[in-house]
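Input (structure):
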């Protein structure tokens, strides 16, 4: 059976081969009918693997109308989409669809009626959150049901102009589909962002988040994530997380519940023409190593500052973000092959992949906005227990409160707290949990300065604040 893309190509080649002799009208109509049938069949097949997600929870908002600087906890309801990736009920979606959720429910597709119009509504099932990775805006949830999974494709094979279809529930419209092309295969949204996205002109709207972007073979090539808009509506600028990253994060969340960040002990920069001229590099594009961590994996393998990194496991590296993104797919301890240029010499080295120091943002997954709020500091904190101590093995003290997330404004000005700080005391009074921290701060008079002893990056220091 011809694929959708094959039918389109056949139509184009027929026109190109016989420009002066148009095909009979019935032949053209037949080709369009075949194309429509293929799109219908593709949509019907993929839709069985797409779900609508409802999350219910709490969020923090500023209570500006009352003149207070404190953050208040408000109820939050979010909707989005998800793609079934295993027949035992695992579903990938965006982290922003389910973050802060205390309950997640999923509407699964109804059984096709065979009719051309209204399809029956699917069942609504409870789901549990398996894991969330805020860095990539990906999450994994699970339901107790068996659904046909959508195959995950290789996003490295995508090409600009390729036909794609976006599935999801835009603006709450369950089981919707739109079609477009790949506008860009590797779009960087911010200069300092290590994440790259697939850009598509397939219409995407709020509610599409977490739904699959599929190719003409029905394979998941990306996960619809956000739009860029000036009007508030879809303007043909939709972005999806590449499927290769989705697959890697899904596998890690399923097996371990969290994501390991990996590195090889280098700091790489994208080569610009000016950089190439100033450093007398042999080419003006690609990736140059501006730092190699002493005694790190790259250093032990023989890599040096100034080396041009040509490829990672045979895949060409065109910029530094591509290097960071591709390292996600390798497990800790795995050996990767690195090709570099050193002057006129080309070298190949085997480098061990190491675990990157964890981002302090990982603690945000562990907080409850109702229990962990420290309103006068504008943070969410976590008291150190046995589980948390294992994640922070080198702390000076076995107690304290970790700064896990921001939570609105604080009435205190002066020094600031950083994510990952561990608070040991308030004005020399030791604190062992969030309740003790709140009590110690509440006991202070408004005229008293607030002095926190904290540990930051392995060093003890005092953070001084006062009511503004």
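Output (sequence):
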């Amino acid at each position: 059976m011809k694929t959708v893309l094959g039918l389109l190509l056949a139509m184009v080649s027929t026109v190109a081969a016989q420009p002066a002799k148009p095909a009979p009208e019935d032949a053209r109509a037949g080709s369009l009918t075949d194309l429509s049938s293929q799109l219908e069949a593709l949509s019907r097949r993929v839709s069985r693997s797409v779900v609508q997600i409802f999350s219910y929870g709490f969020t923090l908002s500023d209570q500006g109308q009352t003149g207070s600087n404190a953050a208040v906890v408000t109820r939050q309801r979010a909707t989005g989409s998800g793609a079934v990736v295993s027949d035992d009920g695992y579903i990938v979606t965006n982290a922003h669809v389910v973050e802060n959720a205390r309950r997640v429910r999923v509407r699964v597709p109804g059984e096709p009626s065979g009719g051309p119009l209204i399809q029956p509504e699917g069942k609504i099932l409870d789901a549990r959150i398996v894991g969330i990775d805020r860095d990539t805006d990906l999450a994994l949830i699970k339901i107790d049901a068996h659904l046909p999974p959508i195959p995950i494709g290789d996003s490295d094979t995508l090409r600009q102009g390729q036909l794609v279809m976006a599935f999801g529930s835009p603006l709450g419209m369950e089981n919707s589909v739109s079609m477009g092309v790949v506008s860009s295969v590797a779009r960087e949204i911010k200069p300092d962002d290590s994440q790259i996205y697939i850009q598509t002109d397939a219409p995407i709207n709020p509610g599409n988040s977490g739904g699959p972007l599929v190719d003409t073979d029905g394979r998941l090539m990306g996960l619809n994530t956000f739009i860029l808009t000036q009007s508030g509506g879809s303007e043909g600028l939709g972005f999806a997380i590449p499927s290769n990253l989705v697959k890697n994060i899904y596998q890690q969340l399923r097996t371990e519940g969290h994501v390991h960040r990996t590195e090889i002990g280098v700091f790489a920069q994208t080569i610009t023409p000016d950089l190439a001229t100033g450093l007398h590099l042999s080419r003006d594009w690609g990736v140059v190593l501006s730092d190699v961590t002493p005694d790190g994996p790259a250093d032990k393998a023989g890599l040096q500052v100034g080396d041009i990194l040509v490829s990672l496991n045979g895949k060409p590296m065109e910029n530094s973000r591509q290097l960071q993104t591709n390292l996600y797919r390798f497990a800790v301890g795995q050996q990767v092959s690195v090709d570099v240029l050193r002057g006129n010499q080309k070298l190949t080295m085997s480098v061990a992949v190491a675990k990157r120091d964890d981002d302090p943002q990982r603690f945000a997954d562990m907080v409850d906005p109702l229990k962990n709020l420290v309103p006068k500091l504008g943070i969410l904190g976590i008291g150190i227990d046995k589980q948390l101590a294992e994640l922070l093995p080198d702390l000076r003290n076995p107690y304290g409160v970790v700064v896990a997330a921001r939570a609105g404004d604080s009435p205190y000005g002066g020094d600031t707290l950083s994510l990952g700080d561990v608070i040991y005391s308030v004005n020399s009074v030791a604190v062992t949990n969030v309740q003790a921290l709140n009590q110690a701060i509440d006991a202070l008079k408004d005229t008293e300065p607030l002095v926190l002893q904290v540990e930051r990056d392995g060093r003890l220091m005092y953070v001084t604040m006062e009511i503004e």
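Notes: The longest helix spans residues 25-47. Residues 4-47 form one domain.
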